[in-house]
Amino acid sequence: MLVSADIAPVPASQVDEPDSLVARFGADRPLVLDSGATLAPWQIAYQSYGTLNADRSNAILICHALTGDQHVASRNPITGKPGWWENIVGPGLPIDTDRFFVLCSNVIGSCMGTTGPASLNAATGEPWGLSFPLVTIRDMVRAQAMLLDHLGIAQLFAVVGGSMGGMQVLQWAASYPDRVFAAMPIATGPIHSAQNIAFHEVGRQAIMADPDWRGGHYLQAGVRPAKGLAVARMGAHITYLSEAALHRKFGRRLQDRDAPTFSFDADFQVESYLRYQGESFVERFDANSYLYITRAMDYFDLAADHGGVLANAFRGIKTRFCVASFSSDWLFPTPNSRAIVHALNAAAASVSFVEIESDKGHDAFLLDEPVFFATMRGFLDSAARARGL
Amino acid sequence: MLVSADIAPVPASQVDEPDSLVARFGADRPLVLDSGATLAPWQIAYQSYGTLNADRSNAILICHALTGDQHVASRNPITGKPGWWENIVGPGLPIDTDRFFVLCSNVIGSCMGTTGPASLNAATGEPWGLSFPLVTIRDMVRAQAMLLDHLGIAQLFAVVGGSMGGMQVLQWAASYPDRVFAAMPIATGPIHSAQNIAFHEVGRQAIMADPDWRGGHYLQAGVRPAKGLAVARMGAHITYLSEAALHRKFGRRLQDRDAPTFSFDADFQVESYLRYQGESFVERFDANSYLYITRAMDYFDLAADHGGVLANAFRGIKTRFCVASFSSDWLFPTPNSRAIVHALNAAAASVSFVEIESDKGHDAFLLDEPVFFATMRGFLDSAARARGL
User: Is the CB of residue B274 less than 8 Å away from at least one CB of chain A?
Assistant: First the structure.
């Protein structure tokens, strides 16, 4: 039996409401994982904006990135900061909450209300820690599909996401093609590259090298591997930017001083900035969740799941796609997006593609990029007309 | 008074001799550092190959990179492995030890026999640790110049080096233009970029986050921050390669298994490779030296030292230059080399430039790159004829 959350859509006027909705699934609705493990009970935390229309046809699912969460367009209750896509999602914005019902759920394995390694294992009463089963991008999407079942939404008008969110968008189209009218994978790729796996592995090793990680069972010990997680974040953060963006923002400017101190202080502004990124991240994120979610990204290989041919993931699909990349993104460079487009072409799918000129690197998908905004607005508007919205 | 090493050149037949030569400098010959500190006594360890000619005009100084050492073309006594440039330096090779007297010294601040933070501070009888003064690229070059004085070599026929070695080459030309007949800075730049500083800072934070670092005084405690140093090396190692090289070498291939284990084992070959890189590095390198030398690179800004105009570093210089970059090097991308070339042009210096097509990333300068070898051979041969060698 489902222990259900209130499934009434949240009115757009409540976008400042910080608390998440939670859908709880009992032993009768386990989450069956790619690893073969099953998870029950489990829950998924989500946020919604706008109003679901009468025939439940105007829902847009936003899929968040590695360290993202469901607080897309409302204040984050942990950090007190605005939602991470408030420039995209809201009344009159590219994802227009006056027109669409917008959903975003925290991915399985994360730490913002959805079941993950920091959750209590009902069987033991202890936090899961490393006994939590490994999850995949497909598991994340499977959990989201169960949330949609729970909410009575048979088909999404659109599914949209950047980076790991874009992987979920691709997986949605591959796993549930009939449930996705339009799809927009942004700054993403059909696999995680060797270089990206390598960067993730460095981050994981940084966490595991912290003695406060305690083999993953730090919560029971009342400690947290804050230093290791901060180092992991610092390294990853560099990959989200670009050399040009770092040069423009910081260059070699010194921090509050006229000359180098000849010490290991943060002489350079870029050092101070990175240290801040590391320190603020550990206040909001669970180290084991970081391990699990980076692993899920590493395992992502949509072609391998379809006989080694990416186009096979999309044969006969009716979904219309818009693929977007950013010119200075070196984490998911444009050739990744082109590979998606070529596969969709080979599958005779409807697809448009744009590479947006930007020096902001991978993070450009979170920042003010007018051409990107216009692209998304145009794609969704055209798709909405086709859908009769 | 100098406590001198035997300054007789090592015959080429002795290239398998693992022990280094050491030049020791007493209180009357302190090393005066950019920070204002002075170091005395101090010593510099070096290797030589080939024979110094009668008028001492055939010496080539090779400057090593961040974690390099003086064992250019002979077995490394710590690792037991061949020298790091045995494909470049030897009889009949591009740096021909039948023709040239080749020197390479361990940089000040390092840990292979030259004074550094792991050395004993004569004043205390304890390892320096973090009380060792910060050093700069110019300090490294200043120490090398004192070694040359000691060896009675007034002018180098050539100074050659890649990466941080290339920074030293540029500094040699700027500090001692009359002592350098020919110079070859490879895969380097006139500054360390914000992105490169950022990567270094992550490595330093990884080391300092290791509780076995003990505030830099781990040697006294009989421990070493091996995990932190391994993480630092893993992250840095990615920047030495390229996405294409990682894809070609490893791709998403699994390590000794047919399917992912759904665990945090090193499923992917690239993970196993990186872990090995980290583990083997800590066996041969001192963590504090890593802090000091990365800092020296971060501080490098040759233009800033010359009124903000790089060309001012080279006004009136007679040295002939050959600048080389590699197309897939993203640590020191080709625009860095072009900036050097433009400054040399503005200073009316003699300079040739080549960008070598390679997918091997920054490390290409250490690998078999026939066009690179031919370029170096041609440049040195032409310069040798001009020098009357």
Answer: yes
**How many CB pairs lie under 8 A apart between chains A and B?**
156
- Whether B362 is catalytic is yes
Topology classification of domain A195-295: Rna Polymerase Sigma Factor; Chain: A (1.10.1740)
Return the DSSP state at B360. S
- Phi and psi (nearest 5°) for B53? -75, 175
Active site (annotated) includes residue A200: no
pLDDT tens digits, one per residue of B198-255: 999 999 999 999 999 999 999 999 999 999 999 999 999 999 999 999 999 999 999 9
**Residue A363 labelled as part of a binding site:** yes
On whether the A12-193+300-386 domain is CATH 3.90.1640.10, my answer is no
Query: Are the C-beta atoms of B117 and B286 separated by less than 8 Å?
Result: yes
What is the CATH number that goes with domain B12-192+304-387? Answer: 3.40.50.1820
> Which chain B residues are closer than 8 Å to A304 by Cβ?
252
- Give DSSP secondary structure letters for B24-67: EE-TTS-EE-TTS-EE-SEEEEEEEES---TTS--EEEEEP-TT
Please name the member of A34, A243, A295 whose beta carbon is closest to the beta carbon of B195: A243
Give yes or no for a contact between A321 and A338, defined as CB atoms under 8 angstroms apart.
Answer: no
Site of tokens 């101090």: B42
Common-topology check for domains B12-192+304-387 and B195-295: no
Question: A300 at the B interface (CB within 8 A)?
Answer: no
Per the residue annotation, which of A74, A163, A175, A337 is the catalytic one? A163
Per-residue pLDDT reduced to its tens digit, B340-371? 999 999 999 999 999 999 999 999 999 999 99
- Smallest Cβ–Cβ distance between A210 and the set B209, B230, B246 belongs to B209
Q: Catalytic residue at A342?
A: no
Among candidate residues A150, A192, A200, A362, the one labeled active-site is A362
Question: Taking the alpha carbons of B245, B247, B252, B254 in that order, is the dihedral positive or negative?
Answer: negative
Task: Kindly list the domain boundaries of chain B, sorted by start residue.
Answer: 12-192+304-387, 195-295
Q: Determine whether the annotation assigns residue B139 to a binding site.
A: no
Checking ipTM against 0.90, whether it exceeds it is yes
